[in-house]
Structures are given as C-alpha cells and as structure tokens.
Amino acid sequence: MYQSVKNDLLFLSNPEKAISKAKYFKNGKGEYAEGDVFIGLTNPEVHQVCKHYRDLVNLHDIEMLLKDEIHEVRFTALTLLVLKYKKLKKLDEKADFVNLYLRNISYINNWDLVDCSSMYILGPYYFETKDNSVLENLAKTGHLWSERIAIISTHYYIRQGDFALTFKLAEMLLNHKHDLIHKAVGWMLREVWSKGGSQEVEGFLEKHIKVIPRTALRYTIEKMEEHERKYFLSLK
C-alpha cells in the first residue's frame, strides 16, 4: 500500500510548484532543510490522498512513507498518522503511534512536518498519560526539530487550560539561537494569552523581557491591544 500512496502523490507532482516550495522551505545549501526533495503538492492535494487511504494503510505503510526522501510523502505519512490516531480509543494502541513518531523524529525535519503532527499526537498522548518527561527531554536535546516538537506539542495542553508545561518549556528555550524556536515559543505564549492566560503571559514577559528574543516577543504580543504591544516593546 505504501507504493500505491506514493504513486498517487507522484502523479499529482508539479515541477514548477516544487521549485517555489523548495525555496519557501529553505532547502538551499546551508539552510535548515538543505537537500530536501519537493514535488510541488499543495496541502489540499495531500489531504485528498490521505482521505482515500486513511483506512487502507497500516502503521508499517506509514513508517515507510515517513522515511521517504520526498517532503510531501513525509507530510502525507504524518497526516495519515494523525487521522488514524484521532480514531483510537485504547491507550496501548495510541502508544504504538507515539513510539513510531518518536523513533522517526529524524524524518520530521521541517516546521510544517512538526506543526501538522506533534500537537495532535504527542500532545494528546502525554496529556492523557500525565507524563511530561518525554517532551521536557526533547526540549533539552539541542536538536532543532525535537525542540520544536516539544513546545508545539503543548498546544494541546493549552487547549485544555493547562499552561504550566508551555511556560516551563518556553523558559528552557528562551536562549535558543534559531528563529524557528523563537516563533514557536511566541506562538504558544500567544495561544496561552488567547485561552485565558493573559495575566500569566504578561507576567512571564515582564520577568524575561531582557532575554526573550524579539521575534518571540512579537509573536507573543501580536493579538494584544496596541498600547499593550507598545508597552512590552518599550521594555525590550
């Protein structure tokens, strides 16, 4: 079934779009996705293929897809994993999906791959098991994508009204050098602010205003009133 999925994706390939996607996702020499291969599929095209194969593929098929050299094939694998995970009821079945995800992190190697999957698989699973240790350890790895996976996974916690892990990981990642982590931290803090944690976020900003990266700050305050944005920018 793996090959059938890949063949359908290849049939939809668009060389012109592939060039622009490669530039957008930074696959040039020295960039964070150096050497990644694109075939120019849109997300709606991928989702249409996933809708067809959701009940036909198994975990082995998905793992094969996730190890493929083509970016959109890996995106398809993660989308299928999410679609199938959402239908699971038993914790041991969910654990199989989580374990597959964790042992293949090296293939989840761009921000879109992280963002389409981590908050829908790792977030729900570790919130349900009440074990934050894996996400905390991922945030300490020094590996860009593992660190982004960790903080983005907390989006699920935020939706449940639990902000503690987001603040803990945000504090751990404040001194990170990469803007993809700055953006992720700011995005999650903005989500906390939007979900009823405005006072906590504002307190966090005041405490860390001298060290928080400007990109993270701007992402965090994006939905605040203008006078609030100016206030925090003036502190910086």
What does this structure look like?
There is one protein chain. The longest helix has 16 residues, at 144-159. The chain starts with a helix and ends with a helix. The protein has helices at residues 2-11, 15-24, 43-53, 59-66, 71-85, 91-103, 111-115, 122-129, 133-138, 144-159, 164-172, 179-194, 198-208, 214-221, 226-235. The protein is mainly α and 236 residues long.
Summarize the structure.
The protein has 236 residues and is mainly alpha-helical.
Topology:
Blueprint (H helix, E strand, L loop, with lengths): L1 H10 L3 H10 L18 H11 L5 H8 L4 H15 L5 H13 L7 H5 L6 H8 L3 H6 L5 H16 L4 H9 L6 H16 L3 H11 L5 H8 L4 H10 L1
Helix pairs in contact: 3-5, 4-5, 8-10, 10-11, 10-12, 11-12, 12-13, 12-14
Average of per-residue pLDDT values? 96
Shape by Cα distribution:
globular
* Uncertain runs: none
H/E element sequence: HHHHHHHHHHHHHHH
- Structural class, from secondary structure content? mainly alpha
Question: Based on DSSP secondary structure assignment, what is the total number of beta strands?
Answer: 0
> Which percent range describes the beta-strand content?
under 5%
Number of H- or I-type helical stretches: 15
Alpha-carbon Rg, integer: 19 Å
The biggest beta sheet is recorded as: none
Overview features:
mainly alpha, globular
